[in-house]
Specification:
This protein is an alpha/beta fold and 278 residues long. It has a single domain, classed as 3-Layer(aba) Sandwich (Rossmann fold), CATH 3.40.50.720. Helix content is 45%, strand content 14%. It has a seven-stranded parallel β-sheet, with helices on both faces. The longest helix has 28 residues, at 112-139. It binds nicotinamide-adenine-dinucleotide. The site of nicotinamide-adenine-dinucleotide (NAD) has 28 residues, from helix 1, strand 2 and helix 4.
Length: 278
Amino acid sequence: MPRKVFTSKVYEHKVVLVTGGCSGIGRALVLRFAQAGARLVIFDLQQTELDSLLQLVRDQHNVEALGLCCDVADPLAVQQAVAQVLEQFGGIDVLVNNAGISHRSSFAETELGVFERVMAVNYFGALHCTKAALESLITRRGQIIVLSSLSVYAPLLYRSAYNASKHALHGLFETLRYELNGSGVNVMLVCPGFTATDLRKNALVGSVTLANQPPLAMRKLASARDVAESIYRGAIKRKSLLVLDNVDWRARLLARYFPRLFERVLLPRMSRLKARRP
Ligand code: NAD
């Protein structure tokens, strides 16, 4: 049965920049905002993937779109890419800090380079993009949307660097939200649960090479499209925090109030990995 499409004119002709927009949740957000009539900018790593997505966006939704090859971990590359966006589009209304990577390795087996790369992309990537776009976002009373994770409520095993990077995002953007009080800029932190994307496939292992793990069973995962729809609706309401339906409330509750029970029972199950002591 075709789904009902929620229509709103809030983002018509607005400039929406999505980092990591070529895959998973980012790609679904690009398509959702394009459907809403926004002008799209995508930062990602591969030009060929950018080109095919831009073609799709223009063909399906007839909106203006720009794709730039930009590693968000590189502050200079981000500055240059944002300058190009400002020149071509005149400003940025919505910045979606979505680009992210994960890893699968115990703390003991994780090399420093993995911690550095995960923080560089997940935390500093969001910081660089926000710094570069902030003036324009303030001028336009815009929005900053940040992809966090369920892992800030209930830690995931063998993803210490990933969990740390998501906690760091909360520290940064909750402070920024207060500092921007009265400026008209909305800062929304989004915590999705497990979602069917390439995040797991692209995860690093202990020594910065790709893990290439098979995707999780689909029935246990939300679709990127549903997650994007929830984020889109949360953005319209200019929420501060959006915890998505696919974050298990029992896990949140147990982790907060019964941490031992959570560690023994739910943590290994949630992490989809056999519990083992390093
Ligand atoms: P994904 O791997 O499908 O997509 C990530 C995108 O980011 C890819 O297009 C990738 O090329 C891009 N990217 C990676 N490093 C980059 C860099 N340095 N510069 C620019 N682009 C870069 O993953 P996803 O699941 O769609 O993840 C999107 C966000 O959602 C991430 O921040 C992730 O932590 C978060 N999230 C995902 C899940 C999940 O279960 N998939 C759950 C909670 C939160």
